[in-house]
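Pipeline run #58 for the internal structure catalog. This entry was flagged by the ingest filter as a single-chain record with no existing model, so it goes straight to prediction. Upstream metadata was stripped on purpose; only the residue string is passed forward. Reviewer on rotation: M.T. Logging verbosity set to normal.
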Amino acid sequence: MRTRHLIILILACLFRMQFVFSQTNKLYISPTDCPLGKTTQVKMQMDNRSEVVAIQFNLHIPDVVTLESANGIQLTEERKDDHSISVTPKGNNNYLVVVMSGNNKPFKLVSGAVIQIPLVVPDNLEVDKEYPFELTNVILADRNGKNVMTSFDAGKIKIVDDNGPDITPKNIQLQSDNFKPGGNVTLTWNVENIGGKTTDDGWNEYLYLVDELGNEYAIGNTRYTETLPAKGSISRKAEYKIGDYPGIEGKVKAKVVLKAFSDWELPVYGENNEGESQNELNMPKVLAWSLNATVVQEKGSPEVSCMLARSGSRRKEETFTFTNESKSRLQVPEQITIPKGESGTYFKIKVIDNEIANPDSFVVVTVTGNSYLELKKEIWIEDDEHPYLKMSVKESEIKEGGMVTMTLEREWNISWPLEVRLRSDHSNRFIDFPSVVIIPANQKTVEVKLNVANDDLPGLDDEVVFTASAPGHIFDLESQRFVKILDDDIPRFAVVGRPNAGKSSIINAFIGEDRNIVTEIAGTTRDSIYTRYNKFGFDFYLVDTAGIRKKNKVNEDLEYYSVIRSIRSIENSDVCILMLDATRGIESQDLNIFSLIQKNSKGLVVVVNKWDLVEDKTVKVMKTFENAIRNRFAPFVDFPIIFASALTKQRILKVLEEARTVYENRMIRIPTARLNEEMLPLIEAYPPPAIKGKYIKIKYITQLPNTQIPSFVYFANLPQYVKEPYRRFLENKMREKWNLTGSPVNIYIRQK
């Protein structure tokens, strides 16, 4: 039992000793290696577990070395607060050192170097020999002047001959053709290894701009990853953009600081690891004024939040003056002060509702002061007392190639010209459509003549909407005008297929006369024949083409050129009526002709001719035939299929109706709002699959104008990851929601 109590007592004593040591305040000089012929900064460390306000001690420096200068003993920046140091020489390398705070403040932190002693080592000392310091009369005082010194260690230096790698920056040059906030800067410098060994690896290079006031602005850093031999030198260069608010001004130099990747460079060599440029550039002082709105309405006298920022030094507060050219419309502070230490300050300006009809216009405010470059800011104020702007159009319908006469009228006859912005949802239908029209000064009206373009291409009639706007005016919506442009170009329907598929026969059946020669001999039709068809509410060209056979079966020059003309007819048509022979089925040449139609982005109607010769005409047979056609033509399967007979004229009128429908489908225009309303919820429910952990989001859809076939752009964040299966998914969903039968569709994915 006595042994157990003894063990407990010993453990308690050890715990108490550990607690006491944890509260130790210690002052000591770190053992330091001092190279021959060099100046070394010897660090005096202080570990204090209680507050220390002042330090006093007598220091004897080894007789073999000397101080770099009489006032060389200095405090470190990381530990001092408002402390000052007094060093009194006593002769024979003896010094009295006193450190105190004028405001009775303790040292910062609880450990680390507090004093540095620069020692100069001669080059004739014995290597590896050690020399001790001497510390006497050591006092660490707290706020009450009580000595809280617990222990101290004088430490020693060791003389070494380590002629290792030692890097230093040289020949620093500062260059710029646009040296200002927001501009650019180029730094060139050399790094020299003045040591006696090759560097073990590379180093980091930290780059700064430093002004006369000591303000530093870090512009960036770079790396050198190779080695550098002894006495070697490497040229370096870096280009950077200067920030908008660098916090420096006036004459500016560049500073380069080197830091080795590892510890191959002695700590004592670090004194030469930074340098400044020999040349300097002038950094102008600029102001920046940001607003949460640069376009404001007069109604309600709204306030605009602003921030004024400065690019120069922040060491003192600065006041700037505002000059307002229109005090009746805008209330701006006469002066704004940016506080010390801040790059900018917030304030507000107020729009004045003066109940006077003013033109919408810019109000210019100028900011000056403290040698900063003058800053002008424009604020667009929209007046809430607006005169009307009216429009009248003489014609309600106009053919291609005609002229629309428009009159613009402002409510007031005033003494300055008025700039009217003219817009149209079909401005491409006009030659040189003017986006801006000027109503001259002292004049209320102006006449505008718009020439309608004649594109010689078949299309649908367009109802054109005209609108106008002008500063300080309200467009009279009741005067909004609609003009119908009548397309006088006739669409072309090309009848194509293999020889003897019945192309000429069906055209003869359409027009009701034997205009095209029909025989049992394949290849009777040698040229493309255009026939105008304008019966029963239809108006288009029917193009009879030569049958297209495989190349290896075309022997005659005449037939060769006939096939070429047939291909040209496909290229120049709007809708292709592909004739299939019901008695022969689908052959490879039918597929080739289908490929030509698809390649040229033409509308498609498939006609299964000679249906009268098929014995079994049941719905089941028709369905089987239709499925076979769509399977062979896949993936494009959205086209009409008509079972007809040119001989008996069965369903031939249906062919024309479907051809016209397909033509109209090719010309369809879907409003952007409707596209996004229908497709975006669907896309959100069935989004594109994620690729490599990245999620694709489609944000907006619109139809491209003036395209041969309906073409749509889907804007996404990662368009490159949208694959073809999802494009087909989008196309199929669009075909479900809108009638696009027979017409190809282009879907593009673009970056948003």
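catalog note: The CA atoms of residues 162 and 203 lie 20 Å apart.
catalog note: Residues 2-22 form the longest helix (21 residues).
status: ready for reviewer M.T.
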